[in-house]
Amino acid sequence: MQNKLVLTGMVLAIVAVLPACSKLGGPDEFSVLKNPPLVVPPDYHLRPPGEDSDVKGAYTPQEIAKKALFGESAR
Question: Distances in Å between the alpha carbon of 19 and those of 9, 10, 23, 25, 40?
Answer without folding.
Answer: 17, 15, 7, 12, 51
